[in-house]
Amino acid sequence: MLATLLHRSLPMIVGTREGHQNRHVAAVGVRFRLLACGLSLLQGDVLPRSLSKNVLRERIYCNCLDYFCCPPRCPTQRGAELREDILVLVRFWQTMHSDKKYLKASVVGDFDLYGPHSSSSSMQSDLRSTSGDFARPATGWINTVPLSSSSNTLSKRSARSKRIVNADIFVKDYIKKRNLILELLAVEIEFLLIWHNPLGRTELQVPGEDNIAAWRAKAVTERILRDNARLAWDISPVLAVFLPMRLKNSDSIIREVSTQVRLNPIVVSHVPQALPYLVTTDTLLNDAHELVYMLTWAPISPIHALAYFSRQFPPHPISAQYAVRVLSSYPADAVLFYIPQLVQAVRHDTMGYVIEFIKYIARKSQVVGHQLIWNMQTNMYIDEEMQQKDTSLYDTLELLIKSIVSSLSGPAKQFYEREFDFFSKITNISGEIRPYPKGAERKRACLESLSKIQVQEGCYLPSNPEAMVIDIDYKSGTPMQSAAKAPYLARFRVRRCGINELENVAMAVSSQHSSQSQQLSNKDSFSSSMKCEMWQAAIFKVGDDVRQDMLALQVIGIFKNIFQQAGLDLYLFPYRVVATAPGCGVIECVPNAKSRDQLGRQTDIGMFDYFIKKYGDETTKEFQNARRNFIKSMAAYSVIGFLLQIKDRHNGNIMLDVDGHIIHIDFGFMFESSPGGNLGFEPDIKLTDEMVMVMGGKMEASPFRWFMELCVQAYLAVRPYQEAIISLVSLMLDTGLPCFRGQTIKLLRARFAPQASDKEAAAYIISIIRNSCYNFRTRTYDMIQYYQNQIPY
């Protein structure tokens, strides 16, 4: 009965889109418990030697391999639940490892259709249930057995001869599959073990993990890797596509998978992750005939589509058509996030595909059109004073802006004019107050200029296109410290409604609808939208290039999404920054937060003492929550700071909010640029004495250990997305930003440690943390900032 249940529960398919079991890592324990049950049954003496037994083994192997027909995922299980799932996998690995001695010709090659206890009718039913599950022609022993209820179709002599000839082949085939399963399982177990026990603590070790580690440590030849890739392709092309991701990008496996994909691309055209094996620099330069399959390939992510218009790939009409088709398939607000890269893609658009797409998306969404115009205005010049034109972009972008604006009519044109008039008046305040001396006179001039601005319905701040401006705090106008450039801060009352609703309201305001009906609709929605209203402070800068901050915060926004998908309880605050013209931009302020510099001037105490003073004694619930928030944000920003090499981390650029989160601002130095003539003096991560004090006071303390564990998990979570991050940065290389000095992509890729195993990657990021902790260069840099700029430390 149990064998029949397993036959009914385990489909004989690998890598299909439908009919498979759940491949999510959260279901790994349930899947492999069931498979372990079946494998133990096969290795016992309960089942008779029959075809049904061989079919069950095939089902178990298929369902095991099917789990790996998707990208690796971070586990959502925690603590005891994750440990239990790891134990299940380890026990299954051990059972599968011992299966070799049961793979004998006398067992696997036994095609006795009817065991001593089976009847003709039950076996016939079993065969019918299995034969319908084959998704593709079988290549193993099953093809040699007639799916018939009568054994008279084979003579006894022919049946016996087939068993003798084929038995050894079947055994070798199973051993190859077994070895592939063991390798894939060992890598998965290693990843889950690192996630469960990032610091390798003895008390968290799992029984049997040493045996798997020893098995993984054995040298594997290039031939075996190549054979594994071929075997995976024969079993399921989808399995082969994900093999390099699973086995950490072995060159031999990548070459073999690329060869197979190019020979038969149509079988994996529904898998977006298979496209890089078909479309390479070589295939594009050589105009390979198989590129035509790209036109009907499954959609990839927007940033990977834009990468075909970057330095990473030579221009080609097929890749350009495919990229534009993919971008057009996404809603306009999804493309909004990648506008800086979309505008830069015009540089490498030799055939005009990007230009036509920009015109199309600007017609599709008015808000996206506005954002495109602001970004194109910014990138027409390479200096902040608008004296030096970007020769490769200026003419094209100028014509594009004219084309977008001239195509507007009716409500769309009124919306554009109203929005740009409103924002122009706000930014002009900076120029109006510049002649006044710093202090009370400039403050008075700022308030006077701000009081003249009237809020127009349906307008928004460029940094926040999801929220409509409904009021201005006319007393909030505050000039910033800079004397020459005169940036200022102001607060706005905004109503969050989403891009689509904002656009609908703005277009309705511009249309010929009666004002009375509009007022009624506003009145109906007022009560529901009140809870979405908030005050938003923003800084309007003139004379500063904020495009580098935009790029850093873009990457931080992607990391935030990655952490959320991985179920990691980390905190990031990617505040909004938008460049609207050369040297001009809007920077949203971090709410309810003060810089460490401000806190130092106000309290003159260390960060730990500040936490005690604000949240109470170390044993209080408030302090524990604040420390927890500090560690969650500290881990996230530490990993990002290392990967992006964010420098100039003095106390003026580090903020603390009221809940204890640490938030980094001002990304003027990153990648290859750093203060002091790009010396790279600061360590990879800023970990000062006072930060360590908040996290327990020493590296052995439990809070600091938790911080290190979160850093390891965050690093492992972002590594699979390294190509997306690299593509995002690659598209910005030609902007002339000071952070790019020739080796950016090479160094960025190296920091992801692409060839390292998960265990090696964990050890790598732990070494970075240890080298940064108590680093004398951190304290020295803070001292320099104190003596030069009077920033407390």
TrEMBL record:
SUPFAM superfamilies per UniProt: ARM repeat, Protein kinase-like (PK-like)
Boundaries of every PI3K/PI4K catalytic domain copy: 508-777
PIK helical domain boundaries: 225-400
Keyword Transferase: yes
Alphabetical list of SMART domains matching this protein: PI3Ka, PI3Kc
GO cellular component: cytoplasm; plasma membrane
BP GO terms, sorted: phosphatidylinositol phosphate biosynthetic process; phosphatidylinositol-mediated signaling
PROSITE patterns linked to this entry: PI3_4_KINASE_1, PI3_4_KINASE_2, PI3_4_KINASE_3, PIK_HELICAL
Enzyme Commission designation: 2.7.1.67
Record key words, sorted: Kinase, Transferase
Annotated GO MF terms: 1-phosphatidylinositol 4-kinase activity
InterPro entries: ARM-type_fold, Kinase-like_dom_sf, PI3/4_kinase, PI3/4_kinase_cat_dom, PI3/4_kinase_cat_sf, PI3/4_kinase_CS, PI3K_accessory_dom, PI3K_accessory_sf
Range of residues in the leader sequence: none
UniProt record similarity statement: Belongs to the PI3/PI4-kinase family. Type III PI4K subfamily.
Name of the protein this chain belongs to: 1-phosphatidylinositol 4-kinase
